[in-house]
Every structure is written in C-alpha cells, then in structure tokens.
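Input structure tokens:
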C-alpha cells in the first residue's frame, strides 16, 4: 500500500509538470520543446523571490508563475504564431532554440550548481492510516488535481475557454467570427508557462533544479502526455499517476537504475498498442 501511495503522489507531481505541455499541444497543436525550460525557470524565479522577499515558496510560486507567463506571452504572439503560417515544423524548431538560449543564460547567471527550495515541511512526512507520505509530494498532488479541475472547468465553461476550444477545433472559422487568434494562442502559452512554473517550484521543493534539468523533465512530461492522451487535462492527471506507479514499482522490484527503462518501455508499448493514449476517452467525457 505504501508503494502504491508513493507512486500516486509522484504521479501527481508529474501531472503538474506535464499539464502545460498538454495544453499547448491540445490547442496550438505544437510540441513545445522549451517546456522543460519553463519548469526550470519557474524554480529559479521562485528561488530568487524567496531570497529577496522571504516567505513560503508555495506562496511565492504564484508571482513566479505570473512572471514566467508574462515572458511566454510575447514569445508566442510575436515569434511562434507568425512562424506557424510557414510550416508546422518552424515553431517547434524555434522552441528548441528558445530552450538552448534559456539554458545558456541560466548557466551564465546561476552556474551549474543545483538549487533547492527550503521550507520547514520539505523533508517531513505525514502518516495517514499507517501509510507514510512525503509532504511535498502530497502538496504537489493536491495542487496538480486542483490545476486540472480549474483548467478543465475554465476550458469548458468560461468565455475564454470557448474561444480556446474554437481556435483549437477550427482556427479559420474562429478567426472569421472575430476571435483574435494571436491573442488566444499567446494566452494559451502564457497559461501553460505559468502552470509549468508552479510545477518547477514543486520540483525545486521536492528535489532540485539546475540549468540543464529541463531536458529530463521534458521527456518525463512528454511520456505522461502521450500515455494519458494528447491534449487532455484529465488524461494528463491519469497519465501522471500511471507513470508514477510504473516508476515506483519498477524501482522497488528491479532497482532504482531501472526506473527510466520501465517508464520509457511503457511509453513504447502504449505507442504500439494505443497511440492515442490510454485515457483518450477521458477527453471526450
């Protein structure tokens, strides 16, 4: 039971980490290769705010998310959206360039030393019904579930959500009825980057971040999104929990060195047997 609980909680963190990637693909139909850098940037901006202002990292992750989201808005509006007119490959290549630039800047400013967010509860555990739970992972799971619910309700029931769904379903028709596609796409990337920044703060709180950590987290997020179902917020949560369980059980049975083998092996199996994702039906519910 403790092993299962640990896997679920780790999966909650993974869902938070992958949610922004899923949102961008679902609406803009673009694989954002700079997603890992948004995560890392969120961890570093939160760390700077903690050093400058003091206070709880979880609270300061909110202004950090706003800062990262504000940086992502012009990136989509003035660089990536214009490139989308030329080909589908051009914006993906551009996001790879952005990731390299962000990595380089972070290395120059912060060096390669890992950075961790400190909090009184960072190394603590809580016990529920005799099962020990790491506090930071429990918090990450609660935040992940809350973000999925808020994002899902926003996309389904708000005016902005209707505009986003229209832009995702038929961009040409959405433009004809007066929806500003440039603004809508930019807002989608800004929201995705803000959510990713919160995920980055949770990574720094639970583990650590460094300037080149984005690639590893991008691969984990991509695995979660593919297994859960591309573009599905609720599928991303289910996919995150699945990946967390696979990783935790594989580490316990075969050893920690086989975690990545098990996770990416599961990804290959899903791509072969059900390429739309294990939880694709969740998206249509």
């Amino acid at each position: 039971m403790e092993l299962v609980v640990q896997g679920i909680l780790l999966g909650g963190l993974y869902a938070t980490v992958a949610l922004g990637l899923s949102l961008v693909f679902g609406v803009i139909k673009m694989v954002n290769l700079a997603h890992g850098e948004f995560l890392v940037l969120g961890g570093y901006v939160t760390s700077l705010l903690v050093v400058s202002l003091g206070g709880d990292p979880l609270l300061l992750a909110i202004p950090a998310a706003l800062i990262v989201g504000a940086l992502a808005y012009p990136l989509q509006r003035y660089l990536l959206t214009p490139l989308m007119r030329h080909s589908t490959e051009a914006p993906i290549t551009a996001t790879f360039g952005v990731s390299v630039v962000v990595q380089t800047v972070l290395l120059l400013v912060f060096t390669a030393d890992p950075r961790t967010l400190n909090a009184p509860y960072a190394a603590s555990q809580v016990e529920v019904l005799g099962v020990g739970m790491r506090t930071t992972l429990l918090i990450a799971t609660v935040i992940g579930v809350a973000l999925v619910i808020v994002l899902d309700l926003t996309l389904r029931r708000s005016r902005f959500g209707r505009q986003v769904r229209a832009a995702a379903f038929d961009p040409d028709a959405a433009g004809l009825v007066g929806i500003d596609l440039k603004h809508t796409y930019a807002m989608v990337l800004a929201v995705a980057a803000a959510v990713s920044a919160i995920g980055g703060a949770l990574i720094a709180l639970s583990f650590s971040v460094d300037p080149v950590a984005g690639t590893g987290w991008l691969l984990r997020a991509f695995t979660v999104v593919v297994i859960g179902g591309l573009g599905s917020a609720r599928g991303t949560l289910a996919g995150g929990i699945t990946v967390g369980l696979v990783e935790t059980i594989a580490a316990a049975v075969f050893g920690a060195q086989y975690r990545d083998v098990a996770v990416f092996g599961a990804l290959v199996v899903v791509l072969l047997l059900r390429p739309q994702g294990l939880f694709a039906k969740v998206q249509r519910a």
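The mean pLDDT is 89. Residues 2-284 form a domain with the ABC transporter involved in vitamin B12 uptake, BtuC fold (CATH 1.10.3470).
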